[in-house]
Amino acid sequence: MKTNRILLSLALMLSVALVQADELYVGLQDGTLNAVAELTGSLSLTAQRTMPGAVHGLAAGPAGSFFVGIGNGVYRYIDAGTQTASILASPTTAFRALAANNGAIYCGLADGSLNAVAKCTLTLTFVNQSAVAGPVSGLAAGPYGTYFVASGNKIYKYSDPGAILASLAGSATTVMRDAAYNGSQLYVSLQDNGLNAVAILNSNLGLIRQINLPNGLITALAADAHGEFYAASANVIYHYDANGNLLGSIVGSPTTKFIDMAYYASPTRASRPAKPIVGKLP
């Protein structure tokens, strides 16, 4: 049985394909290294890009591009590692989460007592900004110009710009950690005392199912267009099917921290063959 392992390196060769495939982008930190790793949907490492600071938001753009929130800036990169656009907010702003869809990039931010989501074009031209109900811990771009915000023990659905369309609350001890939208369903990672789980919701925040996961606090979440999802915990990324069955995993060094993830679903993606569950790491 096959186990994948990320070997952190400042120099990795990029393998260029003629057709853009599915990609999983992963923001990580390892000591003084801040980077975005690029993986296939089946968790094979293809490249790793060093970033100029800690990654606090990550979104997949059109084929071959991704967006990174670092401090008070949002940056657009192409897969070759070249920065093609950026936007800077005030020095007191901190970007917390990013999401891209429908020709726009949504940026969850905090600035003093202000918690907001800013909307920009895919070239990072500012469009508008709307205050939200609380600190943004997770952000996902939904259908028809909507977006979802995880904050405290609630998940909110907003219109653009900024009206609450629906909300769903967990228990008083629930913490909503992250959110990912796959085109039809919303995935929300949550913690409730010793419980770590992923809730799967429809686009109106109706609960479809909740999958309890055994691997500890979920630090990042991503979902593909076919019901599979990825959950990072400590230095491991786990790949699950729609029913919570483990499909595979990839492990960083013992000091790696996975911070955020984003999935690019190729419109030409073929179904992947089933993979065995990974065995014990060597």
Write the layout of secondary structure elements.
Elements: E1 4-5, E2 23-30, E3 33-39, E4 45-50, E5 58-60, E6 65-70, E7 73-78, E8 83-88, E9 94-101, E10 104-111, E11 114-121, E12 126-131, E13 138-141, E14 147-151, E15 154-158, E16 164-169, E17 174-181, E18 185-192, E19 195-202, E20 207-212, E21 220-223, E22 229-233, E23 236-240, E24 246-251, E25 256-264
Parallel strand pairs: 1-24
Antiparallel strand pairs: 2-3, 2-25, 3-4, 5-6, 6-7, 7-8, 9-10, 10-11, 11-12, 13-14, 14-15, 15-16, 17-18, 18-19, 19-20, 21-22, 22-23, 23-24
User: Which residues sit in consecutive blocks of at least 5 with pLDDT less than 50?
Assistant: 1-19, 270-282
Distance between the termini: 12 Å
CATH class of the domain at 4-11 and 25-145 and 224-264: Mainly Beta
Main sheet: strands, sense, barrel: 5 strands, mixed
Order of helices and strands: EEEEEEEEEEEEEEEEEEEEEEEEE
Question: Taking all residues together, what is the mean pLDDT?
Answer: 89
- What's the architecture of the domain at 4-11 and 25-145 and 224-264 in CATH terms? 4 Propeller
Number of strands: 25
Structural class, from secondary structure content?
Answer: mainly beta
Number of helix segments? Answer: 0
Over all CA atoms, what is the radius of gyration?
17 Å
Reported by name, the CATH topology of the domain at 4-11 and 25-145 and 224-264 is Hemopexin
Spatial arrangement of strands, main beta sheet: 1-24-23-22-21
Helix content: under 10%
